[in-house]
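S., here's the first fold you wanted:
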Amino acid sequence: MKKAIIFDMDGTLFQTNLILEPALTSTFDELRAKGLWQGDTPIEKYREIMGVTLPVVWETLCPKHSLEIREESNAIFHTKLIEQIQNRKGALYPNAEQTLATLSENYYLYIASNGQMEYLQAIVETYQLERFIKGTYSIQSILSGHKSDLVRKVVVENNIHHGAVVGDRASDIQAAQDNHLQSIGVRFDFAQESELQKADVVIDNLKELLTVIKI
């Protein structure tokens, strides 16, 4: 029987908070240079919504801008994020690499993320996660945009019979429940206590996965 663990990326394996604000600052510098933005970079507003999907980011930060300009802004931001990753300005969470190495001896490991594929691949390649991860799935690969459907895709395509989903947000926990998998919440940077309460287990360090997984 195939057993697997499906990981969220941002705020679960990768410390995205380290690169978000520098990438956002660079993005708005470029928008100002193009005459598409006036005033300061909306860092405080961004901090309030950290962890939401990118379309929501730009709807919130640029509510008066056209969809076309929002999409251009998102493309610039995406490029800046990848530059930050490739320059190793981000980091995996403590004990991530050791934990993945140990888990991969007994489980198939996958990533299911709201991030765009090029962004996810940059993290995987920079930190050589392909040593442990069997497959990386982006929300771009499904039409609904729902994490539950993305996890379902991972389960079906890989013939998974038993598994767990590890993540920091309500959508990760819901995705586990909707697919009859164990839900493991991580109490990291973007996590909210009210969302974590619905998880089967909550951990404060990735190494705890070695003892809490029940599959």
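And the second, which I think is the more interesting of the pair:
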Amino acid sequence: MDKIPNLPNIKPELLDLPTRAKLEPAQAITHPPRILMLYGSLRERSFSRFLTWEAARILEHFGAEVRIFDPMELPMAGSVPETHPKVVELRELCLWSEGQVWCSPERHGAITAVMKNQIDWIPLEMGAIRPSQGRTLAVMQVCGGSQSFNVVNTLRLLGRWMRMFTIPNQSSVPMAYKEFDEAGRMRPSAYYDRVVDVMEELYKLTLLMRGRTDYLTDRYSERNERARKAIDRQIEKL
């Protein structure tokens, strides 16, 4: 195939030309959006868990099917085989999900070990499958003191690394002990309204993107690499 004018480094046969038609879902999807939620604390009175539950109620009202992973008894990454029941459960939930919500307390200016451990157990690849790639992601944090964005910024970085589509909106709740009642329900406030905004945006973008993620995550560089490997395999057979 002839080279593309002014783009001599590109292999034309591997370059996709995006069109609106290619963004249409390959087939109709009728099941509710599937959302996995992770939180980053094991405390009995955990504000990140309370915030996760509050967000789950909103998502369920919109029509989502929600599953919340309990990090209790999840071993540290690398300390047990990948066949451990909690590891298998987490990975199966990731594969099941179409979108995710990550919520962590801020501890020493960063996400908690509980939160990072869950993410560390999610591999970038499982054979030919990428458990996190193409999922939508919303990030939230709770703070013991004044408002901070250290955690949500870190979670955004991790979401990008995991090849997820992190939505623009986010939630950061300062002095969380003031924002939840004794039953663990979030009190009315601008912070609560922001949580509604975040879940609304996540739900909309999950609806918009599901059925299209295979195409959206298909990359020229990876097609090029596969083509080179195929040539190498042919050469080895000669």
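Why I say that: The chain has a mean pLDDT of 94. The two ends are 25 Å apart (CA to CA).

Talk tomorrow,
H.
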